[in-house]
Amino acid sequence: MTGSHLVRQTTSLITTETLKKDLHSLGVMPDTVLMVHSSLRSLGWIAGGEITVIQALMAAVTDSGTIVMPTQTTHNSDPKYWQNPPVPEEWWPGIRYFMPAYLPDITPTIGMGRIAEAFRTFPDVKRSLHPSASFAAWGKHASFIIDNHSIDFAFGEQSPLARLYDLDASVLFIGTDYSTCTAMHLGEFRANDGRKAFKQGSAMMENGERVWKTYMELEENSEQFNDIGRAFEKEATVTNGMVAQSPCKLIQIRPLVDFTSRYLANLSKQ
């Protein structure tokens, strides 16, 4: 959709204040600990674009709350697993050797959207050190969530996801669906459904030097997440509403993670 089409489809001017009002109406309040998944275009034409959205989120939760976004860099991974696109096997050693090291202040996100990419650059935003599955956070609990992100099992018990679970955080979908819901990977990790662990690799800094680091990861399958989400909504309370022109969902992470874990565990027994 072109910018002109977006303007024509936007019914009124969208600003920081209008977004903040909509977020409060949805249930995003001061002190909220919030994981955000977002589509900028879904909101309509905004004066200030993604910067305005981030400022509105920060104004809605205030600095007594916390905002978290996934800032993954999945291109910094072992090329033998790449599918979009795959690369020739003879390139793999060169990619492992020449891939730039992950640098949290510099390395751009991949596939996270314009809001998450801008968010990681904001003052006082902290970014975790995982070379391919990092998260960024701002606010009261940022350090608690981001620090000590284990390189092994990036979505497991020593991850920002587990800390969000501990804090009874919520997840906000802005124009997205369960397929983007990173928190559900913690449910996968806890399901004990027989999925396999495997060796992954990334370029990162270690003791001041660039190294190719291998670590353990667990098989993931976000293709199931929309099915799980639909089943979850039959049992749990999910807040639906609009922010600007975007359909949104506000969901507590704990029951969603617990449901995901049970669902997958039961599925593995069938």
Q: Would you mind describing this structure in some detail?
A:
With 270 residues, this protein is α+β, with helices and mostly antiparallel strands. The protein has one domain. The chain is built from 10 helices and 9 strands. The chain has a 7-stranded mixed β-sheet with strand order 3-4-2-1-5-9-8. The protein is globular and about 55 Å long. Belongs to the antibiotic N-acetyltransferase family. This is Aminoglycoside N(3)-acetyltransferase. Its EC number is 2.3.1.-.
Please provide a brief summary of the model.
By secondary structure, this protein is α+β, with helices and mostly antiparallel strands.
Q: Could you list the spans in which at least 5 consecutive residues all have pLDDT below 50?
A: none
Q: Nearest-angstrom radius of gyration?
A: 19 Å
Integer average pLDDT: 95
N/C terminus separation? 43 Å
Number of helices: 10
Structural class of the secondary elements? alpha+beta
List how many beta strands DSSP finds.
9
- Going across the biggest sheet, name each strand in turn: 3-4-2-1-5-9-8
Q: Based on CA inertia axes, which overall geometry fits?
A: globular
Q: Percent range for helical residues?
A: 25-40%
Domain module tally:
1
Please summarize the sheet with the most strands: 7 strands, mixed
Strand-and-helix sequence, N→C? HHEHEHHEEHHEHEEHEEH
Identify the notable features of this structure and list them briefly:
10 helices; seven-stranded mixed beta sheet; alpha+beta; 270 residues; two-stranded antiparallel ribbon
How would the blueprint of this fold be written?
Blueprint: H1 3-9, H2 16-26, E1 33-38, H3 49-61, E2 66-70, H4 92-98, H5 114-119, E3 126-127, E4 135-139, H6 142-146, H7 160-166, E5 170-174, H8 184-190, E6 197-206, E7 209-218, H9 225-233, E8 239-243, E9 246-252, H10 253-269
Parallel strand pairs: 1-2, 1-5
Antiparallel strand pairs: 2-4, 3-4, 5-9, 6-7, 8-9
